[in-house]
């Protein structure tokens, strides 16, 4: 099995940066970050048993993994570092395997950047199914990446700990003046009421359009189940009261309202024998109104914060997408942005090619199944007659008599010059999962991304037009020159075969240029079938073509040339033959860039003069062609 080490490093680097960036606002200590590192090791190396030891003052201290129950002691730095010598990855010494909690471990990985003190050590149980660690160069690059991220995270945590010490002092001084914490507002309302009126039963009934989640025990306002006096208080904004004989209680409804709207009801229930005084009613009313103003301020604050965050997200996305990334890099980045912002369970990008919609590689697996195609087809049908984005709160209400797993759907078209070039879909199994604010934000993201994606596709098409011959589909001479020049610098061997169609002028004169063009196409197809991605095929000019294959031995090169000469008459109509000049090279006889082509041309000339329908290998006894 061939392992793509560079691609694996790119994936690891992407995950590490995601972990670091996402954890900056979520993780207060190293424990949670270590859990993320363990998940990375499991994902990329199938390692499920791993312990991280942080280096501190000549000691390696185990960091508690939030996902693992462990009991491991400190390890002295000097005794442990001596085992590594010049390699970052070594088997665990037998003495260490005797330590409690390390009996099953097999290897140690030292996280260290050059001459700096180590950041820590990963001790783990190796997976026999993964062979990436067999490559020393890969291990060294991986260690450098992981060490740098761990170092930055440790520094970030230290800075945050210092910051929290000062923030606590600030929070204590401003606790009762802050109205931005919805939980604090609601909890204070309940606490104050219960502290002042221990005999009262208090309930907070909030309207269901509140976008702030709260841990406080509240009740959602429901027009169908609430009492008439409660609904009246909510709609009028005035306090109402009601005696309920069958329950032997008295109900007081104080609207929680601000300057812009009513956000809920502070409902107080007392036994019939208890008389609420005017001052108590006034106190409850003032408290409800104060909490309404505080909730409104908090709501506006959070809306402003979210708006700023959304604008930053849009700006970041637009900036990144205009960095001349290729289309795959763009979609990968946009996919991460959508997942981070909207938390969908499934996501897909669809592009329109030749008036047909086709899903891209930037899609979750569900869209590669029949079940997923149902959602895509529904969105396609919508965009076939409308350019309006699609917001579905509950898909089951639209599609009947079918199993609908994903009920919340947002689909945004990619419109460039008033034409739909594609669309993006996000889905979740819960109904009403996506808010309308999320819908508007996704519209902005896709709108700002559409032109960048279209430009990237256009750049790719233009570059392909430059790099490819429009008739044969083979690479152009300029692309071949660049490819060969790079190969001569980097590869250990190679072959270059220059091909000329025998008597091609006669074909054009006899059958016409259209037939001649078809023969060029037929030969181009055969060249690509023989080469099969090992190298490149190019149109040299006129009726001349060429192939270049790096890292190939002389014997294989001769077989390739012989196969081409024999196969061309069988795949062309009318039948034609070819003559070819071959030059091969290795480390000891690497030619100059221009000499390679000149030698191949000389060998081709020799093949022509020797009767055609054959190939000749260049040797220095041949007279060079000028």
TrEMBL record:
<keyword id="KW-0808">Transferase</keyword>
<dbReference type="GO" id="GO:0043709">
    <property type="term" value="P:cell adhesion involved in single-species biofilm formation"/>
</dbReference>
<dbReference type="InterPro" id="IPR029016">
    <property type="entry name" value="GAF-like_dom_sf"/>
</dbReference>
<dbReference type="InterPro" id="IPR050469">
    <property type="entry name" value="Diguanylate_Cyclase"/>
</dbReference>
<protein>
    <submittedName>
        <fullName>Diguanylate cyclase</fullName>
        <ecNumber>2.7.7.65</ecNumber>
    </submittedName>
</protein>
<keyword id="KW-0548">Nucleotidyltransferase</keyword>
<dbReference type="InterPro" id="IPR029787">
    <property type="entry name" value="Nucleotide_cyclase"/>
</dbReference>
<dbReference type="GO" id="GO:1902201">
    <property type="term" value="P:negative regulation of bacterial-type flagellum-dependent cell motility"/>
</dbReference>
<dbReference type="GO" id="GO:0005886">
    <property type="term" value="C:plasma membrane"/>
</dbReference>
<feature type="domain" description="GGDEF">
    <location>
        <begin position="492"/>
        <end position="620"/>
    </location>
</feature>
<dbReference type="Pfam" id="PF00990">
    <property type="entry name" value="GGDEF"/>
</dbReference>
<dbReference type="InterPro" id="IPR000160">
    <property type="entry name" value="GGDEF_dom"/>
</dbReference>
<dbReference type="GO" id="GO:0052621">
    <property type="term" value="F:diguanylate cyclase activity"/>
</dbReference>
<dbReference type="InterPro" id="IPR043128">
    <property type="entry name" value="Rev_trsase/Diguanyl_cyclase"/>
</dbReference>
């Amino acid at each position: 099995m061939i392992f793509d080490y560079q691609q694996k490093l790119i994936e690891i680097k992407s995950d590490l940066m995601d972990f670091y960036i996402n954890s900056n606002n979520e993780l207060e200590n190293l424990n949670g970050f270590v859990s993320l590192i363990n998940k990375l090791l499991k994902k990329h190396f199938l390692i499920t048993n791993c312990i991280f030891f942080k280096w501190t003052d000549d000691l390696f201290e185990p960091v508690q993994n939030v996902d693992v129950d462990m009991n491991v002691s400190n390890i002295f730095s000097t005794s442990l570092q001596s085992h590594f010598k010049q390699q970052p990855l070594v088997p665990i010494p037998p003495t260490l395997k005797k330590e409690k909690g390390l009996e099953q471990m097999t290897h140690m990985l030292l996280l260290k950047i050059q001459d700096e003190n180590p950041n820590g050590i990963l001790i783990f149980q190796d997976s026999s199914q993964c062979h990436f660690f067999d490559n020393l160069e890969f291990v060294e690059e991986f260690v450098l990446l992981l060490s740098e991220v761990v170092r930055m995270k440790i520094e970030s945590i230290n800075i945050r700990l210092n910051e929290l010490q000062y923030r606590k002092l600030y929070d204590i001084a401003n606790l009762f003046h802050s109205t931005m914490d919805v939980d604090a507002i609601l909890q204070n309302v309940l606490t104050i009421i219960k502290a002042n009126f221990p005999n009262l039963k208090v309930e907070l009934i909030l309207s269901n359009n509140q976008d702030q989640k709260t841990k406080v025990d509240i009740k959602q306002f429901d027009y169908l189940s609430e009492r008439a006096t409660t609904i009246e208080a909510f709609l009028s904004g005035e306090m109402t009261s009601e005696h309920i004989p069958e329950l032997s209680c008295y109900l007081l409804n104080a609207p929680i309202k601000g300057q812009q709207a009513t956000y809920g009801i502070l409902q107080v229930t007392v036994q019939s024998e208890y008389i609420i005084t005017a001052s108590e009613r006034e106190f409850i009313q003032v408290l409800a109104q104060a909490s309404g103003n505080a909730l409104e301020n908090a709501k506006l604050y959070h809306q402003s914060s979210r708006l700023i965050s959304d604008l930053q997200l849009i700006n970041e996305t637009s900036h990144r997408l205009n960095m001349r990334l290729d289309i795959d890099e763009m979609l990968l980045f946009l996919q991460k942005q959508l997942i981070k912002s909207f938390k969908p369970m499934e996501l897909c990008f669809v592009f329109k090619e030749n008036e047909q919609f086709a899903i891209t590689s930037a899609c979750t697996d569900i869209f590669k199944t029949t079940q997923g195609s149902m959602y895509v087809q529904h969105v396609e049908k919508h965009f076939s007659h409308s350019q309006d984005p699609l917001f579905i709160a509950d898909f089951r209400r639209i599609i009947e008599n079918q199993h609908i797993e994903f009920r919340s759907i947002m689909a945004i078209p990619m419109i460039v010059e008033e034409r739909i070039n594609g669309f993006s879909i996000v889905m979740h199994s819960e109904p009403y999962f996506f808010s309308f604010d999320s819908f508007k934000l996704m519209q902005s993201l896709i709108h700002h991304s559409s032109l960048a994606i279209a430009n990237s596709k256009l750049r790719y098409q233009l570059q392909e037009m430059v790099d490819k011959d429009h008739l044969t589909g083979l690479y152009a001479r300029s692309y071949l020159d660049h490819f060969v020049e790079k190969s001569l610098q980097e590869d250990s061997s190679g072959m270059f075969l220059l091909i000329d169609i025998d008597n091609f002028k006669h074909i054009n004169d006899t059958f016409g240029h259209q037939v001649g063009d078809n023969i060029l196409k037929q030969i181009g197809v055969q060249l690509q079938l023989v080469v099969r991605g090992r190298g490149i095929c190019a149109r040299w000019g006129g009726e001349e073509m060429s192939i270049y294959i790096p890292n190939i031995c002389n014997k294989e090169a001769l077989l390739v040339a012989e196969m081409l000469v024999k196969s061309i008459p069988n795949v062309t109509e009318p039948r034609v033959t070819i003559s070819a000049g071959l030059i091969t090279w290795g480390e000891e006889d690497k030619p100059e860039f221009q000499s390679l082509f000149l030698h191949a041309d000389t060998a081709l000339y020799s093949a022509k003069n020797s009767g055609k329908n054959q190939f000749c290998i260049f040797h220095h006894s041949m007279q060079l062609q000028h």
